Amino acid sequence: xxxxxxxxxxxxxxxxxxxxxxxxxxxxxxxxxxxxxxxxxxxxxxxxxxxxxxxxxxxxxxxxxxxxxxxxxxxxxxxxxxxxxxxxxxxxxxxxxxxxxxxxxxxxxxxxxxxxxxxxxxxxxxxxxxxxxxxxxxxxxxxxxxxxxxxxxxxxxxxxxxxxxxxxxxxxxxxxxxxxxxxxxxxxxxxxxxxxxxxxxxxxxxxxxxxxxxxxxxxxxxxxxxxxxxxxxxxxxxxxxxxxxxxxxxxxxxxxxxxxxxxxxxxxxxxxxxxxxxxxxxxxxxxxxxxxxxxxxxxxxxxxxxxxxxxxxxxxxxxxxxxxxxxxxxxxxxxxxxxxxxxxxxxxxxxxxxxxxxxxxxxx
Length: 364
Description:
Strand order of the largest sheet: 2-4-5-7-6
CATH topology of the largest domain: Heat Shock Protein 90
Number of strands: 7
CATH architecture of the largest domain: 2-Layer Sandwich
CATH class of the largest domain: Alpha Beta
Radius of gyration: 38 Å
Order of helices and strands: HHHHHHEHHEEHEEHHEE
Distance between the termini: 41 Å
Shape: elongated
Helix content: 55-70%
């Protein structure tokens, strides 16, 4: 970038010098004619008043034209010197901009008069270096997660194939044993399905920044639909889902993405709820916002982990029921979608009760 800029800047600099030379020549010509017309007999007197007696005495033997030419030329050379010094400083600043993008730990150094700019560039460089470090960590986590999932998928798939093979090869198997094998194969198939869903979470995460397709949506009806889809999972853990929502509440959102937010949060609440507990979904409205609170009874999330549960690829199985954590993308995706809607999502956990608060502007 700097080579192209340097070449272009030098061309502009030479053009400015050329224009400056023409300007100096024009000033000389105009000054000469003014002297010839108005001050032909009083030139040295005027020169004495302007530049001093000693200077006037020193140059009194020279023609006015020569004196004016020397003055115009000296002013032009001084101007070129100032321009050249300024150009060197500008090129130094441009070189420092390239340093902002590298990963070196060296600080950017600029002339003293640019100390404020130097501090600002060093701050930007530090932030950029930290962002690159976080990006590399995220990429490594994604790679590790894909590796672990690929390994974990083989186990339930092999089990499903193995039990189904036994059922096919033993048509005279006792009904009790057959039912047992069918049940085990079904459980392994569900596990396999969950792992496939996690793969899709990873591949679809990059689509989170797709443009929103907003339309008027009945948010309460959307929540009811999503709640119905979780009925089998609620039954498995003997959970009750209590909805405290208005009959109708229309908001302007991307229905598909907003459904994904509530789907991810509800799925998380079900996963980490105590058996035979309850999950509460409360929707409240104000003049500017819609607030949805999803509460469940489960192990308290430590404060240091609570601050990180919205991070991408954060392993949620570090708290709660071990072995039930997913890819760590569900809540990160929910947060990103809420950001795209100018909304917010937060969590708090106290005394074995965890609450997720989803805030959405009404006039969006």
